[in-house]
Structures are given as C-alpha cells and as structure tokens.
TrEMBL record:
Stated name of the protein: Laccase
Function in brief: Lignin degradation and detoxification of lignin-derived products.
Gene3D superfamilies per the UniProt record, alphabetical: Cupredoxins - blue copper proteins (2.60.40.420)
Signal sequence segment: 1-24
CDD domains in alphabetical order: CuRO_1_LCC_plant, CuRO_2_LCC_plant, CuRO_3_LCC_plant
Family: Belongs to the multicopper oxidase family.
Domain Plastocyanin-like: 35-149, 161-312, 440-552
EC number(s) given by UniProt: 1.10.3.2
C-alpha cells in the first residue's frame, strides 16, 4: 500500500516537471480542442454533456509567462459554442477572446476556429471556458502559467502541485435549466450537487468510489490551484484541521495570507499553499455555497462537496474523515474575509503599478430588476420576469458581434451611450425602495474609452428587488481593487481610504449586496472587451456591458488585424 502511494506521489512530481518542462523549448505551442458530447454518470444518473476532448473537467493548458499558444477548436457537438481564455489579457488581439456575439460569432457545428491565447504579464492560475449560453457548466479547464525560465515562484518551491476545479452538476442539461428559467421568468432550478474536480464526493449518492483523493507526504508542501468554475455559486472552501495560505489570485501573486477557509466567487482563482503538517490520517476538503437566500433555502445548491486529503504511511484512518468547519451558508461577514485582507505581493520583481490618479471615473450600479408581465403571468416575484442591469441597462445580446461591427463599421448593432453614472441617483442601499425602480431599460450600449485612459469604476451594489451578490469580471484587462465599503459610495470621503500601495490585482471581483467596490486599470489594450457578472444567471438576465478601447497613435498601440478564419454569423 505504502509503495503504491509513493509511486503515485512520484507520478505527481513527474507530471509537474513534464508540464512545466515541455514548453521550455518553444515559445509557441499548439493544442487541439475537440468540442463533443460524452456520456457521464454522476449522482446515480447518466447524461450526455458537452466536453473538450471527451474530458470533464477539460484538459489543462500548461504555459510559461509571456507565451503565445494556439488552440485549434473543432466543434463536433450539436450546438454553437465559443471558447474564452479567462484572465488572459490578449494584448491588441480581442479576435479570439471568445464571448459569443461580443468578439465573435459562434463556432457552428462542423466548423473550426484557430484561437490564439496571448499571455503577457499573467503568472499563476487562469482557466478557459465556453462563453456561449450555459455550456460552460461542463466545458471548462485550467490554464497554468509558470514563471519564465530563470525566474521562480516568490515562495518556497512546493513539493507538488494540485489542481482543484470547483463546479456544479445538474442531473439534466444546464441549457435546458436556463431555457426553462428564461421561459418562465423565474430563477432557474439550482444544481443537484457541487463538484470538486468533477466529483460530488462521499456525502452524495453514488459518488464515494470516485471521490477525488489528494495523497500527501507528511512534511511536504503542496500548491493548490483552485478555480471556481461553478456557473452560479460563490463557494466557501476549507480543509479539515489544516490552514491554507493564499499566495496568488487571478494570475497575480499576493502577500501570503493564512486562513482557515477561503471564499471564492465564480470566475476567481486562488493559488494556495497546503502544508501536510497534521497527524497522518484522512481529512476532507469541502466546499459549500455562500448564499443570501433571503427568500428561502431552496434557491441555491445546499450540498457539501468533498474530496480527501490522504496522508501516506501506516495508520488506521479515522472513519469518516474529519470534516472542516465552514462558515454558515449565509455568513456575509465571512464572505468578505479574503477580500478584506488580500494584498498584492509588491516586491522588486512584482511591482504594483496601481494608477495614483484617474482620467475617467465611472460609477456603475449593479442591480437586480424585473419586467412586468401581462396579468402577472410570469413566474418571477409577484408574477414578474426577473432581470438584472448595470446603470439600469439590461444588456441585450446582438446577433452580429460587436467587435466586427466596430471594425467593419456595421451600424445598428450597438450604441455608444452607456452612461458613466447611474441615470437616477437614489439611496441605492435603502431597506425599502419603490417598486418602480425595479424596471430597467433594455439595450446594447457600450462605453468607448480613449487609448491609455486611466479608468476607475465603482461598482455600487443596490438593494433594488432585494439585491444580490455579484462577481464582476472584465475581459482584456486586469485591475487593481483599490477599495470597498458599506452602503452608498461617497465620492468625497471614500477615495481617501483607498489602498494605493498594494491592492490586489484581479480580473473578477466580489461585489457584496448593498456595498461598493472600486477598481482601477489603464485602458492600454485596444479592442472590444466584455464586462459582466460571472454568476451566469445574472449575466443572462442582462448584468453585462462592453468597453471599446480605441487605438492609440503608434502602430504598436493598435489592434492587430483579424485572423482569416473568424466564424461566420
Ligand atoms: C530553460 O532552462 C533550462 C534549465 O535551466 C534549460 O535547459 C533550457 O534550455 C531553458 N530553456 C529556454 C527556452 O531558455
Ligand atoms: C425544476 O424544478 C421543478 C421543481 O422541482 C421541476 O418540476 C422542474 O421539472 C425542474 N425543471 C427542470 C428543467 O428540470
Ligand atoms: C437543501 O435544500 C433542499 C431543497 O432543495 C431541502 O429539501 C433540504 O432540506 C435542504 N437541506 C439542508 C441541509 O438545508
Ligand atoms: C442565516 O440562516 C439561519 C438559518 O436559516 C438564520 O437563523 C440566520 O438568521 C441567518 N443569518 C443571517 C445573517 O441572515
Ligand atoms: C459582521 O460584521 C459587522 C461589522 O464588522 C458587525 O457589526 C456584525 O456584528 C458582524 N455580524 C456577524 C453576524 O458576525
Ligand atoms: C388578463 O386578464 C384579463 C382579466 O382576467 C383577461 O380578460 C385578459 O384576457 C388577460 N390577458 C391575457 C393576455 O391573458
Ligand atoms: C410584491 O408585491 C407586494 C405587494 O404589492 C409588495 O409589497 C412587495 O414588495 C413585492 N415584492 C417584490 C420583491 O417586488
Ligand atoms: C470605418 O470608419 C472609419 C472612420 O469613418 C474609417 O477610418 C475606417 O477605414 C472604416 N473601416 C472600414 C473597415 O471600413
Ligand atoms: C430605468 O429605466 C426605465 C426605462 O427607461 C425607467 O422607467 C426607470 O425609471 C429607470 N430606473 C432607474 C432606477 O434608473
Ligand atoms: C448559431 O449561430 C448562428 C450564427 O450566429 C446563428 O445564426 C444560429 O441561430 C445559432 N444557432 C442557435 C441554435 O443559436
Ligand atoms: Cu451578479
């Protein structure tokens, strides 16, 4: 038994070296992604899911900082699909960024699209996922970016690395769940289980045999690359009797932050160190959803997904393994712990280039909404249709992508009047708000940014329609999270308390209900870039918008030309 485990560990190490090593020779590598159906059994029932290369979760892309990777994406499935490289800034090249009808039309069944992944400053853990309807429920995988040759991790080299991909499983097709929600106007059915590396874990039916196991050697340190690939759920994650130390997030390093648990929002990644320093035994790692669930407990997935941390050696394991203490599902205070304490690494090799002043100030309210239905015939609250908006505009997805409309001067696809401040100013976080505030307008409006403008966005969470939590994700740029706070943002008082020294550098940020969050970035990447809530249902309801960053004067400050194989509309 012991020998088998040793061999297993060796495999992890060899795999890691191989993964990091194969790209040392070439600066461009090539991968093939075949999107196709495959049959998977979870929770005692079998269904066909869309996968990449038949794998769920999908294949990992290993890269080195600054590399360009080509992925030949073949759609051999039955539905339209697009693939997005989440957290990769794609300098000057929005063409293969992926969001459907934003930067491209979908890859239709039978077609192929060769996509470039252009890495620049990112280092750490990123991921890729489908960016068309709710297909990303099963079409997702990791992108691991190693330090460049001659540089190393800014922490003690771990003995091995482990990928932890958190997800959600529905017994029926996630797109059918989406369609039902859109048809009725109600919140779509929650998933049947949360997942760790594609598995529900011991506590769910028919799952024990396949539960993910991480075998550890006492005294060694493991780098866990954790991705929240769940469609809808923010997650608390913890390992029984072990502390974890966050050292990176969203492809940037952070100051070490040692915690009992993390909260990870949809779209975010965390690199954490786990020291195998407890008594040799079996321990659960577990995740549960964080939910406001103000209208009852059945609107979120309340399952506990588990995997096992198993020490090597001779011992009688505790049975069942220890479960970690996780915050209560509705503990808002716990949900902000990571955000409140995370700081960028900020050393000579990893400087923090947070803009000290700004040229473009934007205030964006992120709100839940509802449209009235004839005779209150919809299934949302009070017979309405549920919606969501930014600055009161519920995003309407066009049928021609905005990037091509911009590049080829096709008119009538989008407007450029996205408001820089909320169209109506009121007490956004009041307990009681007039019902008429729930009605949004509908549109496809973008905000045009001058090249190199220095942008600040304050996301203002509101209590319209009861409010919610959000996970705002920006394509094309990482941003510094310079501040956050309770209630309504005060433009005179709150900026005085910004962290302009070592704010974390992220691409996806939690906006708590009735609070605000301020981010800053330099709009130095010409192109068309989507910004949306990574809680997929909120994005579907319209919590999305687009930035167009104009070309600069210098040729190197301009968008590159499109590839010849852009998918047709
Ligand atoms: C990277 O470093 C290794 C070992 O230090 C060396 O063998 C290899 O040639 C280097 N590769 C490149 C592309 O510089
Ligand atoms: C959603 O849940 C309801 C209630 O459990 C059920 O009747 C309905 O069939 C579910 N919808 C789908 C698409 O599975
Ligand atoms: C979880 O939610 C289901 C409804 O979806 C409910 O029946 C069950 O009691 C809940 N379990 C717990 C532990 O709250
Ligand atoms: C969290 O949920 C529990 C049980 O449903 C409830 O008693 C408690 O008041 C809730 N806490 C908050 C902060 O909403
Ligand atoms: C949450 O934090 C606030 C502010 O720090 C505090 O006033 C409140 O008591 C806390 N609530 C809980 C349930 O811990
Ligand atoms: C709405 O309700 C009224 C009164 O019951 C009924 O006459 C009318 O046909 C309904 N309209 C629709 C579109 O169902
Ligand atoms: C539903 O309607 C009732 C009665 O008009 C109102 O008091 C309540 O605030 C409404 N709820 C929501 C979430 O709009
Ligand atoms: C689009 O319009 C701009 C300004 O009117 C012009 O400079 C550009 O050449 C046009 N592009 C195409 C592809 O027609
Ligand atoms: C949102 O837009 C709708 C439609 O134009 C308008 O009726 C409503 O007053 C606006 N609400 C807010 C809060 O701006
Ligand atoms: C697939 O994409 C094409 C091109 O945009 C579009 O015409 C078609 O309606 C899409 N099919 C579905 C089922 O959405
Ligand atoms: Cu949201």
């Amino acid at each position: 038994m012991w020998l088998i485990m040793k061999v297993f560990l060796l495999q992890i190490l060899v795999f890691q070296l191989f993964g990091g090593g194969i790209h040392c020779q070439a600066s461009t590598s090539r991968h093939t992604f075949v999107v196709r159906e495959a049959s998977y059994t979870r929770l005692c029932s079998t269904k066909d899911i869309l996968t990449v290369n038949g794998q769920f979760p999908g294949p990992t892309i290993y890269a080195m900082k600054g590399e360009t990777i080509i992925v030949d994406v073949y759609n051999r499935g039955k539905e339209n699909v697009t693939i997005h490289w989440h957290g990769v800034n794609m300098p000057r090249y929005p063409w293969t960024d992926g969001p459907e009808y934003i930067t491209q039309c979908p890859i239709q069944p039978g077609l192929k699209f060769s996509q470039k992944i252009i890495l620049s400053s990112e280092e750490g853990t990123l991921w890729w996922h489908a960016h068309s309807d709710w297909t990303r429920a099963t079409v997702h995988g990791a992108i691991i970016v190693y330090p460049k040759n001659g540089t190393k991790y800014p922490f003690h080299k771990p003995n091995a690395e482990v990928l932890i991909i958190l997800g959600q499983w529905w017994k029926i097709d996630a797109n059918a769940i989406r369609d039902e929600g859109l048809a009725s106007g109600a919140i779509a059915n929650h998933s049947d289980s949360l997942l760790i590396n594609g598995q529900p874990g011991d506590l769910l039916p028919c799952s024990k045999l396949d539960t993910f196991k991480l075998t550890v050697d006492h005294g060694k340190t493991y780098l866990l690359r954790i991705i929240n690939a769940a469609l809808q759920e923010a997650l608390f994650f913890s390992i029984a009797k072990h502390k974890i130390t966050v050292v990176g997030t969203d492809g940037s390093y952070t100051k070490p932050l040692t915690l009992d648990y993390i909260t990870i929002f949809p779209g975010q990644t965390f690199d954490v160190l786990l020291e195998a320093n407890q008594r040799p035994d079996h321990y659960y790692m577990a995740a549960i959803a964080f939910s406001l669930a103000s209208t009852g407990r059945n609107i979120y997935d309340n399952t506990t997904t588990t995997a096992i941390v198993q020490y090597m050696g001779y011992y009688t394991p505790s049975s069942p393994p220890f479960l970690p203490h996780l915050p209560a599902y509705n503990d808002t205070n716990a949900s902000v712990q990571v955000m409140a304490n995370l700081r960028s690494l900020e050393d000579a090799e990893h400087p923090c280039n947070v803009p000290l002043s700004t040229s473009t100030k934007l205030i964006y309210t992120v709100s839940m909404n509802s449209y009235p239905c004839v005779n209150n015939s919809c299934s949302g609250t009070n017979g309405t249709r549920t919606a969501a908006s930014i600055n009161n505009i519920s995003f309407h997805t066009p049928t021609v992508d905005i990037l091509e409309a911009y590049y080829y001067n096709i008119s009538g696809v989008y407007g450029d009047k996205f408001p820089s401040v909320p169209p109506l100013v009121f007490d956004f976080t009041a307990d009681y708000l007039p019902l008429l505030y729930q009605l949004p307008s509908t549109g496809t409006e973008v905000r045009v940014l001058e090249y190199n403008s220095i942008v600040e966005i304050v996301f203002q969470g509101t209590n319209v329609a009861g409010g919610s939590i959000h996970s705002m994700h920006l394509h094309g740029h990482s941003f510094y999270v310079v501040g956050w706070g309770f209630g309504n943002f005060d433009e005179n008082r709150d900026p005085l308390h910004y962290n302009l020294v070592d704010p974390p550098h992220q691409n996806t940020i939690y906006v708590p209900r009735n609070r605000w969050v301020a981010i800053r970035f330099e709009a130095s990447n010409p192109g068309v870039w989507f910004m949306h809530c990574h809680i997929e249902e909120h994005s579907t309801w319209g919590m999305a918008t687009v930035f167009i960053v104009k070309n600069g004067k210098h040729p190197k400050a301009q968008m590159l030309p499109p590839p010849s194989d852009m998918p047709p509309c």
